[in-house]
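Record 1 of the preview.
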Amino acid sequence: MTEYIQFLRNYVGHQPVQMCGSSVILENQRGEVLMQLRTDNHCWGTPGGAVELGESTEEAAKRELQEETGLVAEELELFGVFSGEGQHYTYPNGDEVHIVEIAYLCRKYHGSLNPQESEVADLQFFSPDKLPNPISPQQAETIARYLEMRKKREDGVVCRETQT
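->
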């Protein structure tokens, strides 16, 4: 938990708060996706977490990736912004959040897998058509959109501007 979120929790307890988070969908050279098994809810998701005060979402994504996996992102590409009821989540400890998640794709990185023991029970690369279950509820929409994007890419669907 970030210092800022802890500060808020001291005042509001478990009441809902709005939280900005960043996550990283990391693909290896074989097109497999890095997934982590979370220690808090025992679900699979992508590396990520809360943005600190004054930190950019890209800085947070890189920081969280390195903290949770040991990998260092060389380049990030904005994948999408996710918010709304699908991002409402109650943590196992009772803390309630409405997350605005900024997700990034990463295909260029270096380092060795080294799971952060306090938050990550397991790290593995998976083929997109064989992702593990259960997926962490607050990342279900992000993962679903990623899989849609992959399918379109594999099917050769390309968006083109139309001229009038």
